[in-house]
Amino acid sequence: MNRLSQNIKSLRKRMGETQEDLAYSIGLDSKSAVANWESGNNRPSPESLKKIAARYRVTVDQLLEDDLSTGFSLLNYLNNAVEDKGSDLAHSFIYLFPIVTIKEDDDLYPKLKDTKDIHRHFFECVKNQDDESCIYLEKAILDYTELIKQSGCISAIANILSLWLFVMITLRNYINFEEIFDLFEIKNKTKRKKEIKRFISEDLLSKNIDFSENMRSMVYEDYYKDIMEEIRVLKGDERLFQLGDYYHCLIHIFDIVDNDLSTEINQQIGLVLLSDLSLMKKINLLKRIENYFIKVGKSSVILNDKYVEKVYNFFKKS
């Protein structure tokens, strides 16, 4: 079995699809062609290669040249996610967005301490799946905004950026999976698995809307310039320039950048920036990313799982 054959089989199984599922999804009448591709007895036409790559969210070059083999199954992960609340993963995700404390700012702005407490309450509500989380989020953003307008408080800038990035990255993840949450209410595990399989095949993999364009139309026009300006402000402050570099890395890793590059390329840029952070010995910030990807590396659903593996391996080598 050659590299291409292995990749087609691995990608298909990763999404819980049968050979017949893949065949019908790309316009073939039977599974025999897919079986021949996966056994190495035949090779897809250039047109079929494009369709397979598009369906599984990879490039044709990746399909032909990269090792995409993995034991991960999105179907099994999502079906088992109901029993596993994922509290460790939720905690490590929240940990990506630090709440900054600068003593001089706390002394100058008494309201800042109260706002940070509200910020912490928001994260606690998120971890506990508390419906009041949005109340705390709105209050924290309003209070930070007031502090920034009144004084340009750098701690408030850093912390409102933390909240906005948390919201945008959460939204990015939610858009792809928003239709699945009703399926989690199905108690029978066999029936639930069947419905999740249908969701992956008919909805998730068949969507024609490019995610990046979808995300841009919803939030980039209003928020992206402000986020980049706040990162620039942090980079210009001798106390927080490392945090600015960290967030610049993070927005590429999670592909919430407003450019014409593909998700794969933006994430590769994020990996390069991550390497730069490592060389600059920014240990405390690196630990946040490391902790998250160690957790995700054991489950892998938030990002393309091959990319997760690359980041996970980066930290294992560091």
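That was protein one. Protein two is written in the same sequence-then-structure order:
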Amino acid sequence: MIPHDATTCRRAPLTSANPLCYPYCAFHAARIVGMTSEVKRIEVIMETLLDSVSLAENISLRVAASAGFGEDDRHKIGMSVREGVINAYRYGNDTQRQKKIRLIFELEPEKIVIHVVDQGRGFNLADVRDPLAEENLLKPSGRGIFLMRSFMDEFSVRVGEEGGADVVMAKHLRAPRGHHSGAHSAQNKEE
């Protein structure tokens, strides 16, 4: 049995074969060694608690860093996950602790796909008001969706397996500065 002592569990590296555990979630990580052609999947199940918001953001920052994302993209991924989990906590699960929030990372060779799944009623993305419309500037709703759409390369909302919302967002892995593709590098060598 895996210990549930948060101080012991937090020390396990992301690439550990043993699940990481936190006070409010279970975290099962596949071994991540660079981005290979196979898809890696990490799933975190959290209680509907406000503490889960920061926890999800911190986990997403670690996963993004391990996948090779730069600082700016890690920040965008972290903020997007934070907003998605806040929405799942507040609107999806209506702050009901017995409901769970699932955070799923799918690491593909060229992008990370993230799902934030709640156990609520779900929602239609078309019904979310545009927070930039003049009549909505002082209203609190829609800002999280706006930020997720702005920070991520792909964004959609589906009906989850249990009927709640499945917020799906993806960020493409960009080559680090100074890194060129093989064809581009060969062309530079010839010149």
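The longest strand covers residues 40-47. Keep this in mind for the problem set.
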